[in-house]
Write a structure and sequence with these properties.
It contains 5 helices and 5 strands; from the N terminus they run βαββαβααβα. It is an alpha+beta fold. The protein folds into 3 domains: 92 residues, 2-Layer Sandwich (Alpha-Beta Plaits), CATH 3.30.70; 62 residues; 58 residues. The N and C termini lie far apart (125 Å).
Length: 220
């Protein structure tokens, strides 16, 4: 008993055509989508697909995808042999069913309330165990009969320049830019005002000294 599962990442140039090709391939090979998830954002459009495939057609689906027009970016196939667990579960299930049959025979012969309650409790516990084993066996049968393939199918979007804003939007941006320029200038001016004061004082001091020297020369 072999369980075979896998995952594939596919990059497409035309995601709608690729998805349609997948639909047709699955229909031809009696496979079906267990889940489909479409995600659409600014960078990519992507399908996350979980596919259930009859085990006998698993390789055919893989080959069909590989022979398509899309680029296979990654592929991972996992094979598990569950023969031992399958056989062990079948044996244990058959044994518990046999015990259940015996307990039911004992129950039919029980004469006291105590004996009846004790046997019924054993029967209840056995039935729960049998249901659990039956569920596990059914799960293994399903996994062996149908393989699971997870496909990530995506298309990268081309970059487009979206700066085609309307008149009022452009005016708003221009006003904001102008105001930011004024604020930047005021911050710059506030930052250098001490240097301006020092420069002004130095200028007038030097000018006064030069003027006094000229006056002395004229007196002499």
């Amino acid at each position: 008993k072999i369980i075979k599962d896998g995952s594939i990442t596919v990059k497409s140039q035309d995601i709608n055509a690729s998805k349609k090709a997948f639909d047709n391939l699955l229909k031809q090979l009696n496979a079906y989508y267990e889940s489909e998830d479409l995600q659409n954002n600014d960078q990519t459009t992507a399908y996350n697909l979980t596919i259930r495939i009859p085990a006998v057609n698993f390789e055919k689906v893989i080959v069909g995808i590989e022979n398509g027009k899309d680029k296979i970016e990654s592929k991972n196939i996992v094979t598990r042999d569950v023969t031992e667990e399958y056989v062990d579960t079948e044996i244990r299930l058959a044994s518990k069913r046999d015990y259940l049959k015996r307990y039911k025979e004992i129950l039919s012969k029980a004469s006291t309330v105590k004996d009846i309650m004790a046997v019924e409790e054993n029967i209840r516990a056995l039935q729960e165990e049998i249901e659990s084993k039956e569920g596990r066996l059914q799960y293994l049968k399903d996994q062996v009969s149908f393989s699971t393939l997870n496909i990530s199918l995506y298309k990268e979007k081309e970059f487009t320049n979206n700066y085609q804003d309307g008149f009022f939007t452009r005016v708003k941006i221009a006003v904001i830019d102008g105001w930011n320029s004024i604020v930047d200038f005021m911050v710059w001016a506030i930052g250098i005002w001490p240097f301006l004061i020092v420069a002004a004082v130095s200028f007038f001091a030097i000018r006064t000294i030069i003027k006094r020297r000229k006056n002395r020369k004229s007196i002499d």
